[in-house]
């Protein structure tokens, strides 16, 4: 198969091109080469999609399948205008941030409502427009469906993507924290759901979709699992079976300015409930039936730890610092004392 990856210089795009190359496909990546580098041995075509004719270096070429990861509606539209007639199958990597309601658990891609598309003046969901990430992805999804048609397009709404080369501070925080050992601050309750997808599992499914012509709109993530099991499995994966977890209630954390999800003073992968009770608890029965295969988190954690150790300078700072965690744990213990 001739596969074109629009992107391919970082994380998911690199995983798709690496796995496609290993499977013997003829892979081309088109990007600027600004965010990272393509996989060694994969054909790289320099392309700046900020320009309407940015993909002109591919003029005249035909591809069996395309995988696009863009967040910018103009990038999606220009690529579709340039390539739609010369491509068999089109996968678009979207996000579960397209959904209109983050509070209801158990929603399915087939029936959940999505946000409105981005307004015409918003094309890049960064800076003052960062809140338009979901709407921009909705616009991109629509452009793909409208141009390629539903029979030849695969819209894959990824959940949190985790594993080696993850440029964020989210999953890597828990891998590094549990590998360090000692008393670990765990947010909320052991029953709270968490949901994510290993980067290689998602990449493999994208490849499977391209190879088999899978069409439709699906969520790209593992089935939800209780946070207690998640932390225990990550700990086991990094050689710390039976971690010493202290569960601290949400309100206590919020009062002490411990922040959700990502960034400074945060506990990654933790989101306030009930507002986000549906964000990490989606029903992915349809995706699993359509070929998505997911591995246990212990395996992802072990691979991520190897990568963190090999490339410590690539890991983004974030999460609770050890002194901040120790302070919250001290205060929690004091508040529990009779
Ligand atoms: N990370 C998560 O947890 C998560 C969760 C849900 C959904 N998603 C979605 O999953 C996908 C992740 O993709 P990814 O890991 O490959 O990372 P990404 O950061 O989305 O990659 C963007 C790619 O597009 C290229 N690009 C950006 N601007 C360009 C331009 N002007 N011209 C040409 N190429 C350009 C970049 O390469 P150059 O900069 O080198 O040009 C890079 O290869 C995205 O669609 C994201 O929205 C991510």
Structure explained in plain terms:
By secondary structure, this protein is α/β, with parallel strands linked by helices. The protein has two domains: 2-158, NAD(P)-binding Rossmann-like Domain (Rossmann fold); 171-194 and 224-281 and 295-332, no CATH class. The chain contains ten helices and 15 strands. The protein has a seven-stranded parallel beta sheet, with helices on both faces. Strand 5, helix 3 (133-148) and strand 6 (153-158) form a beta-alpha-beta unit. The protein starts with a strand and ends with a helix. NADP nicotinamide-adenine-dinucleotide phosphate binds at residues 7-13, 31-36, 47-50, 54, 69, 71, 93, 95, 158, 160-161.
Entry keywords:
Rossmann fold, 15 strands, about 35% helix, 7-stranded parallel β-sheet, two-stranded parallel sheet, binds NADP nicotinamide-adenine-dinucleotide phosphate, about 350 residues, alpha/beta
Would you summarize the structure shown here?
By secondary structure, this protein is of the alpha/beta class. The chain has two domains: 2-158, 3-Layer(aba) Sandwich (Rossmann fold); 171-194 and 224-281 and 295-332, no CATH class.
């Amino acid at each position: 198969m001739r596969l074109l990856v629009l992107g391919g210089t970082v994380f998911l795009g690199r995983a798709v091109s690496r796995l496609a190359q290993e499977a013997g496909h003829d892979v081309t990546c088109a990007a600027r080469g600004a965010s990272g580098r393509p996989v060694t041995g994969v054909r790289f075509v320099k392309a700046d999609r900020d320009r309407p004719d940015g993909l002109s270096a591919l003029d005249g070429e035909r591809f069996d399948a395309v995988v696009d990861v863009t967040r910018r509606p103009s990038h999606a539209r220009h690529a579709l205008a340039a390539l739609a007639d010369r491509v068999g199958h089109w996968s678009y990597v979207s996000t579960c941030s397209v959904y209109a309601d983050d509070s209801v658990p158990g929603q399915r891609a087939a029936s959940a409502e999505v946000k409105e598309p981005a307004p015409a003046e918003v094309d890049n969901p960064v800076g003052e427009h960062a809140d338009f990430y979901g709407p921009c992805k909705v616009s991109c999804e629509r452009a793909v469906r409208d141009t390629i048609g539903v029979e030849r397009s695969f819209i894959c709404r990824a959940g949190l993507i985790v594993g080696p080369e993850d440029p964020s501070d989210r999953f890597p925080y828990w891998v590094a924290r549990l590998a360090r050992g000692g008393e670990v601050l765990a947010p909320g309750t052991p029953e709270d759901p968490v949901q994510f997808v290993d980067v290689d599992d998602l990449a493999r499914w994208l490849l499977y979709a391209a190879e088999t012509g899978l069409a439709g709109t699906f969520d790209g993530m593992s089935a939800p699992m209780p946070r207690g099991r998640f932390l225990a499995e990550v700990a086991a994966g990094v050689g710390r079976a039976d971690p010493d977890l202290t569960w601290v209630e949400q309100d206590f954390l919020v009062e002490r300015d411990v922040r959700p999800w990502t960034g400074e003073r945060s506990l990654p992968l933790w989101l306030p409930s009930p507002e986000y009770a549906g964000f990490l608890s989606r029903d992915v029965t349809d995706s699993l039936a359509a070929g998505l295969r997911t591995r246990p988190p212990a395996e992802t954690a072990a691979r991520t730890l190897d990568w963190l150790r090999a490339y410590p300078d690539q890991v983004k700072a974030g999460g609770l610092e050890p002194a901040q965690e120790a302070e919250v744990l001290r205060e929690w213990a004091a508040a529990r004392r009779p």
